[in-house]
Amino acid sequence: MEMTKDMYSSELRKIAWRLQYRCKVSANKEFGMVFDINSIESFESSSVSKFFVQDIFNLINNEVGKKIIHAIYLDGKSEKEVALELQISQQAVNKWKKKTLKMLSMKLSS
pTM of the predicted model, to two decimals? Predict the structure, then answer.
């Protein structure tokens, strides 16, 4: 049981790092990077990946942050599209995204 918990914790840290890295890579671009969980070959791997993503989203306390991260990384929307949907500025979307990813990184590294 303990080994499984450590394995999940390690995988969650890796996913959070990837999300943060993708954020940095796309910071100067208008479009979001798609985190494609459907490209995983086996059903078991796909289920485990979806479990990890759901666990990460459960760590986000703020609904606005959840909406922004989901829209950018899972739906592949640009910051501008998300800003129009939420009726906030693109700069606000960028700040929320950075703030949420930083919070996730801190929670997963502790």
Answer: 0.56
CA distance 88 to 9: 34
Residues 74-102 have pLDDT tens digits of 888 999 999 999 999 999 999 999 999 88
Contacts 24+ apart (CB under 8 A), 79-85: 79/30, 79/32, 80/30, 82/32
Cα-trace Rg, the chain: 14
Greatest CA span in the chain, whole angstroms?
A: 46
51 neighbors 11 (Cβ within 8 angstroms): no
Tell me the three state secondary structure of residue 104. helix
Q: Phi and psi for 75 in degrees, rounded to 5?
A: -90, -10
44 φ, ψ to 5°? Answer: -60, -50
Amino acid at 34: V
